[in-house]
Specification:
It is a single chain. With about 270 residues, this protein is an alpha+beta fold. It has a single domain (about 1-274), classed as Deoxyribonuclease I, Chain A, CATH 3.60.10. It has six helices and twelve strands. It has helices at about 10-25, 45-55, 135-155, 155-160, 180-185, 200-205; strands spanning about 1-5, 30-40, 55-60, 75-80, 85-95, 100-110, 120-125, 165-170, 195-200, 230-235, 245-250, 265-274. The longest helix is centred in the middle third of the chain and has 19 residues, at about 135-155. It starts with a strand and ends with a strand.
């Protein structure tokens, strides 16, 4: 599953408990988090959540901006939690259309699942540039991300014998955008020989609107953008035969918990055969 958990916006301490309640009820195998806070001293929201839920966690803490903003009380980055141990393959700032690194980034982790439960696999968590007019930047960021996945997993022939990478995050882009169409193979792929299958559509939800944010939030999102589908779980292709089938995909976190909305985003949960 993937979830943008809104950093420390609003009554974040109250929201923390609501986030735990949702995650505990879903009992996911793997979670990618966006806007997950990290403190200058090293404390991370993912570690706090994982400690309460009995999970493992890694955070792209090295990509926080404390070097530029030393007085910042916290920063938000991507993180991953799992029921199995995790190893970071790479955490990388993503380049924009001018080839310059941005504060947006990707964290690529290997989920160290035991062989008798299916073996290890790769998960990629990311959060792309916002702004309705930033399609070119997101396109460049996804191109850099796709190249990073190839660096980790190998060439097309190698990937066709492996379990697929799972990409999950807040792409800040609608399904019909140039960048998402290239990512999913509806247009020329970002990197030759690599596309990702959108779990929402693969599960039979095509044509059904996926509302992405809570209605009339008591703590509104910073950006006054329309409520559009921005959050995705995707499965890489090519991949090992008979692996990566999407059995279901749905939203969660769509109701307040004891009057508290967990986040301004709903989470996307996919049942994937890996």
């Amino acid at each position: 599953m993937t979830w943008n958990i809104q950093g420390r916006v609003g009554q974040w301490q109250d929201r923390q408990g609501a986030i735990v309640r949702v995650l505990d009820g879903l009992d996911p195998d793997v979670v990618t988090l966006q806007e997950s806070w990290v403190e200058p001293g090293g404390a991370t929201q993912a570690d706090v959540l994982a400690g309460e839920l009995g999970m493992y966690a890694v955070t792209a803490a090295d990509l926080a901006g404390f070097d530029r903003y030393p007085n910042a009380p916290y920063w938000v980055v991507n993180a991953v939690m799992s029921r199995w141990p995790l190893a970071i393959e790479v955490a990388r700032s993503l380049h924009d259309e001018h080839g310059e690194p941005t504060w947006r980034h990707a964290i690529v982790v290997r989920v160290l699942r035991p062989d008798d439960q299916g073996g290890d696999f790769v998960v990629v968590g990311t959060h792309l540039e916002h702004g309705l007019d930033r399609s070119a930047t997101r396109h460049a960021q996804l191109t850099h991300l796709a190249a990073t996945v190839v660096d980790v997993l190998g060439d097309r022939l190698t990937r066709s014998t492996q379990l697929p990478a799972v990409l999950a995050g807040d792409l800040n882009a609608v399904p019909w955008s140039d960048e998402v169409r290239s990512l999913t193979g509806a247009s020329v792929p970002l990197v030759d020989g690599l596309v990702f299958i959108d779990a929402w559509e693969a599960a039979g939800n095509a044509g059904r609107e996926q509302r992405g944010r809570r209605p009339t939030p008591s703590c509104p999102s910073v950006l006054p953008t329309p409520d559009r589908r921005l959050d995705y779980v995707m499965v890489g292709w090519p991949r090992r035969r008979n692996a990566g089938h999407v059995a279901a995909c749905h939203l969660a976190g769509t109701e307040p918990i004891d009057g508290v909305w967990p986040s301004d985003h709903f989470c996307v949960v996919a049942d994937i055969d890996t």
